Amino acid sequence: MERSANAENPVPPDGQVPPRSPAEPRPPRRRDRHGRGMRGPVAPPQVPLSASRAEVFADLVQDSVERLERRWPQLAEVDFVILEVPRLTAEDEAWGADTVPLGGTIPARGDTPARVIVYRRPVEIRTKGRDERAALVHDVVVEQVAEVLGVTPETVDPRYEDGEE
Fold first, then answer.
1. To the nearest 10°, the Cα dihedral for 138, 144, 150, 156?
2. pTM of the entire structure?
3. 146: nearest Cα among 158, 155, 135
4. What are the DSSP calls for 13-75, one per residue?
5. 12, 90, 109, 138: which is deepest, by most CB within 10 A?
6. By C-alpha distance, which of 58, 47, 56, 148 is closest to 106?
7. More confident call, 29 vs 6
8. Which residue in 127, 149, 148, 143 sits closest to 57, CA to CA?
9. Cα separation of 43 and 132, whole Å?
10. Between vectors from CA 106 to CA 133 and to CA 132, what angle results, nearest 5°?
11. Are strands 115-119 and 79-83 parallel, antiparallel or unpaired?
């Protein structure tokens, strides 16, 4: 039985399918090759599972900052920055092999506002769960804000507990 090439049957009589031109769009795939349908996202965007670790960490820092801004309105003028890891420079050699900073500050200069820096990876490595991470993030933010304001961490947040014994 011989087939002819027409609008209903695009296969030419010789059985060879002509190559598709590059300008011609490919028809959308309706199903995967096993016939079970296309794979979709594991979780919808509004579900916390789809948030990256960096986004979750940024939310923890933001929560801590908002909590402190209610008590210290001048923090609205301070920039809060999250970096992955601290950069090791010649002056930082004093850290030693045992310590890595969890945060830092850059004082205000001229028109540049003061900055509080929180280092994400060192904080994540030192914590096991979300609650522990949230507590450590808040402690780091409190300590750095205290340094910017020139007061003790207990003054910045009366609930602050110094973890060192």
1. 0
2. 0.68
3. 155
4. TTSPPPPPPTTSPPPPP-S-TTSS-----SS-TTSGGGS-HHHHHHHHHHHHHHHHHHH-GGG
5. 138
6. 148
7. 29
8. 127
9. 25
10. 5
11. parallel
